[in-house]
């Protein structure tokens, strides 16, 4: 990976921490797409994301209150469905004194 100076980041984003977070989010998105065989990259996904950031191809806009509320409610709904499925599918059996440990053959 080539060296990227802080000054180069500052030209695109005045906050270097925000710039690196944006590049990291893009790298994660690229890695997910690579794992699903949707894209192929000519270089390392981290380097590719950082260079896209430096070229100004990645834009950042904070979420609006409505978008944040929609994401939060969707996550809570998914978590509650997962908890209900775990509760319904789980069976608990009391261990008896003569029981063998799980995974042992008779």
UniProtKB/TrEMBL annotation:
<feature type="region of interest" description="Disordered">
    <location>
        <begin position="75"/>
        <end position="106"/>
    </location>
</feature>
<protein>
    <recommendedName>
        <fullName>DNA-directed RNA polymerase subunit omega</fullName>
    </recommendedName>
</protein>
């Amino acid at each position: 990976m080539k060296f990227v100076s802080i000054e180069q980041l500052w030209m695109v984003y005045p906050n270097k921490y925000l710039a690196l977070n944006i590049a990291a989010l893009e790298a994660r998105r690229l890695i997910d797409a690579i794992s699903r065989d949707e894209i192929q990259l000519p270089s390392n996904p981290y380097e590719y994301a950082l260079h896209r950031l430096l070229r100004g191809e990645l834009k950042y806009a904070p979420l609006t209150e409505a978008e944040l509320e929609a994401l939060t409610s969707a996550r809570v709904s998914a978590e509650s469905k997962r908890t209900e499925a775990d509760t319904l599918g789980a069976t608990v059996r009391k261990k008896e004194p003569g029981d063998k440990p799980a995974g042992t053959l008779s």
